[in-house]
Amino acid sequence: MLHATALHTYYGASHVLHGIDFRVAKGETVALMGRNGMGKSTLLKSMLGIVAPRSGKVAILGRDVTGMETSAVIRQGIAYVPEGRGMFHNLTVREHLLMAARAGTDGRRDWTYERVLETFPRLAERLDNLGTHLSGGEQQMLSIGRALMTNPQLLILDEATEGLAPLIRRDIWHVIRAIKQTGIASIIVDKNVGVLLDLADRHVILVKGEVVYDGGPETLKSDSSILERHIGL
Amino acid sequence: MDVWFFLIQLLNGVQYGLLLFLVASGLTLIFGIMGIINLAHGAFYMLGAYLAWWLAGLTGSLVAAVVLSLPLAALVGYVIEALLVRTLYKRDHLDQVLLTYGLILIFNEAQRILWGNDVHGIAMPTAVNWSVRLTETLSYPVYRVILSGICAALAVVMYVVIAKTRFGMWVRAGASNRDMVAALGINVKLLFGVVFAVGAALAGLAGAISTPISSVAPGMGDTVLILCFVVVVIGGVGSVKGAFLGAMLIGLADTFGKVFVPDFASFTVYGVMAAVLLWKPRGLFA
Ligand SMILES: Nc1ncnc2c1ncn2[C@@H]1O[C@H](COP(=O)(O)OP(=O)(O)OP(=O)(O)O)[C@@H](O)[C@H]1O
Ligand SMILES: [Mg+2]
């Protein structure tokens, strides 16, 4: 689905990603883990062309997208739910969803306006509210709903449950599981290691811009020292 | 001073305001959405007027001239955006002002080379060269009514496009968070190019349709540019609704100022601007 090789990214003089290899198979759920500031968000942005990597390659479904515009990379079948949720202060909930609507790269429209509202009934009650007038949890639902409206094959979630109340968090995880069941691949960045161990097919741990672990949940569960060392649990 | 005279000035003010709105709406969108201070926006107004005058001479028809000048102004706008303005999005306002000021000089020079520095005018087409009689002595030219009608209709179209269509949602979203728009797979470069071209076309149209009532002359874009910046500041940067109200205020202030306080006429629009900004420092709809 997505394959990044030897990515090096800099912010000015500071070298943030040190030659990262990262891939996601079709339908696979990958957890991207690491402490604060280790480069998780930067890796996502580098793959999407939001930040330009200095060297390395990114391919999506076998097609080289290195150096392409963000919008063109995204249209290869990716949906991105950024940190901070990316609400538009002057658009209503309804407009957030309608403006994003698009058939998938395979032409399918599995995710319609109606289906997104069924998935997030709370949004259906707030259709005429402005995006920024929603609670944090509702904004997150809207950001995910808006991403689904593009009928992606790969959903990227950066800190989707950060700062949310436990009940809302549970709702969001519930939806993420349901999305996984539909066969959409995903990359999930989250602080909640417990849920990720249970949910993801594969786990990648970053330390200072390098991959220190790439494997299934079994090793992480049986050898707790890995998580202790790299995540600090 | 009778009520009819007052009414005529009111109509003139509204008509001037509507015309200003056509120019200012593009300016505010380009400023609000793309973050570009486009000093060359008035040049599109001038371009529209000169194109209309030139094409009317070639075709013998004002309608044909206006209709033809519209896509030409849009094309010039699109090319300028794609070649020059696009390089400015990530730069600061000083660079933008320098480049777009340079564009004004180029436009003015091109105008001089192509069409000379004489003042031109278009004769009012006979079909619309009559007036609506109001009283024994006062009447109102029908062309101004038509002009106001065109501007008002376009304002309604613009409102519907921006408020109701997906294109309008993208434009508004772009004003709020353009990186997120790109992250949803929408081609922001193309979107901006189209908005810039439409802005240029509207300014050009305003210039073109005003040729029968005001002269086609060098520097005509500059006055309009300054007034439109006043309109944008009053309305709130990026707000089309604000631009509409601002344009009405300035159109009326300018018209009534010239009639009632001719000694202070050049001051009235700035007086209105100062008053609005004291009340709402970021403009009416910021
Ligand atoms: N725009 C930027 N300019 C300069 N440095 C940046 C920028 N964004 C991030 N950094 C730095 O790059 C490093 C990696 O940041 P990044 O946001 O990718 O980390 P992260 O793993 O997503 O962390 P978090 O869990 O806090 O979101 C950090 O040291 C951060 O300070
Ligand atoms: Mg991050």
Automatic annotation (TrEMBL), chain A:
Transmembrane segments: none annotated. Keywords: Amino-acid transport, ATP-binding, Nucleotide-binding, Transport. Residues 2-233 form the ABC transporter domain. GO terms for molecular function: ATP binding; ATP hydrolysis activity; branched-chain amino acid transmembrane transporter activity. InterPro entries: AAA+_ATPase, ABC_transporter-like_ATP-bd, ABC_transporter-like_CS, BCAA_Transport_ATP-bd_LivF, P-loop_NTPase. Belongs to the ABC transporter superfamily. Coiled coil: none annotated. The lineage of its organism: Bacteria, Pseudomonadati, Pseudomonadota, Alphaproteobacteria, Rhodospirillales. PROSITE patterns: ABC_TRANSPORTER_1, ABC_TRANSPORTER_2. This is ABC transporter ATP-binding protein. SMART domains: AAA (SM00382). GO terms for biological process: L-amino acid transport. It comes from Paramagnetospirillum kuznetsovii.
TrEMBL record, chain B:
The keyword Heme does not apply. Its main location: membrane. CDD domains: TM_PBP1_LivH_like. GO terms for biological process: amino acid transport. One of its GO terms (cellular component) is plasma membrane. Keywords: Amino-acid transport, Cell membrane, Membrane, Transmembrane, Transmembrane helix, Transport. It is a multi-pass membrane protein. The chain crosses the membrane at residues 6-29, 36-56, 62-85, 97-115, 142-162, 183-209, 224-252, 259-279. It is found in: Cell membrane. The keyword Cell membrane applies. GO terms for molecular function: transmembrane transporter activity. Belongs to the binding-protein-dependent transport system permease family. LivHM subfamily. This is Branched-chain amino acid ABC transporter permease.
